[in-house]
Amino acid sequence: RGRHEFGGMSVRYGFYDECKRNFNIITFKAFLNVFNSMPICALLQDRILCVPSGLSPHVRSIDQLRSMEKPTDSEPSGAVCDLLWSKFDPDTTGWSGCGLVSEFGCDFLDEFLTKNKLEMIICSDRLTQY
User: Measuring CA to CA, which residue among 31, 44, 24, 42 is closest to residue 4?
Assistant: First the structure.
């Protein structure tokens, strides 16, 4: 699941208009119900975590990811927002920022990987390896 499968973003980037033009608003709402029921992340072979964008200081374990309530929509801050928008920056120490401009550094990544016995995290368009 990516950041554009949330209500506000799908309206902003034209999915709502496309559904309305080709089908109806009921179709758009049905898609949102499906999107909101999808998991935010995926775990491959118990060692590779796939996330839309990055990590969150609100999520310290894989079990927390598994227990995230569904359906869910993105909030302007918090764990889901961080998973959708945070970025890895090797020049950052720990966690920096909030909301859409958050970054995490090597130490934050290393701690998460070690604690959860992961080999790597795949973040959308980049690979962050331990």
Answer: 31
Query: Which residues are the active-site residues?
Result: 4
pTM over 0.70: yes
DSSP state string for the chain: --GGGSHHHHHHTTHHHHHHHHS-HHHHHHHHHHHHHS-S-EEETTTEEEESS---TT--SHHHHHT--SS----SSSHHHHHHH-EE-TT--SEE--GGG-EE-HHHHHHHHHHTT-SEEEETTEEEE-
* Tens digit of each residue's pLDDT (9 = 90 or more) over 26-53: 999 999 999 888 888 999 999 999 998 8
